[in-house]
């Protein structure tokens, strides 16, 4: 737990992180999002290289991947009703100032939006993909 008593929040841009691996994800977007969700399952207990555990992990999914099921393991699936980027910004805005927030994305526009709200940003390789 952090010195403030609140675990850091790691928000993963599902579409962007899935898209960073050229493994045919575009043929099965929901399946790729499920694989990412499952690969993230160890992060809440292990943290990230520069973010000590425990951490809260939120995977934001959109479009065809929006209906993937929640799974045990501590990764919360947040289904974007519209833009995944807007949902991520809303999550960051809601938690800003109360805890450390790390957003995982390579999207330059999203990086700028969440950085302006005080979030740290990591690229897709920061998480198991």
Quick recap of the structure?
This protein is of the alpha/beta class and 129 residues long. The chain is 31% helix and 18% strand. The protein has a five-stranded parallel sheet with strand order 3-2-1-4-5, with helices on both faces.
Explain what this protein looks like in three dimensions.
There is one protein chain. By secondary structure, the protein is an alpha/beta fold. The chain contains 5 helices and 5 strands, in the order βαααββαβαβ. A 5-stranded parallel sheet has the order 3-2-1-4-5, sandwiched between helices. Helix 5 links the parallel strand 4 and strand 5. The protein is globular, with a radius of gyration of 13 Å.
Topology record:
Blueprint: E1 9-13, H1 14-18, H2 29-39, H3 43-46, E2 56-61, E3 75-79, H4 84-95, E4 101-104, H5 108-115, E5 120-122
Parallel strand pairs: 1-2, 1-4, 2-3, 4-5
């Amino acid at each position: 737990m952090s010195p403030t008593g609140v675990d850091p929040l790691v928000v993963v841009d599902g579409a962007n992180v899935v898209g960073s691996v050229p493994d045919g994800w575009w043929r099965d977007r929901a399946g790729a999002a499920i694989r990412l969700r499952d690969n993230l399952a160890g992060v809440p207990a292990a943290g990230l290289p520069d973010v000590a555990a425990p951490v809260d992990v939120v995977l934001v999914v959109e479009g065809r991947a929006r209906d993937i099921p929640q799974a045990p393991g501590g990764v919360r699936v947040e289904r974007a009703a519209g833009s995944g980027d807007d949902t991520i910004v809303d999550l960051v805005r809601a938690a800003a100032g109360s805890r450390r927030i790390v957003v995982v994305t390579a999207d330059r526009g999203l990086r700028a939006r969440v950085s302006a709200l005080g979030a740290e940003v990591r690229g897709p390789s920061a998480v198991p993909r």
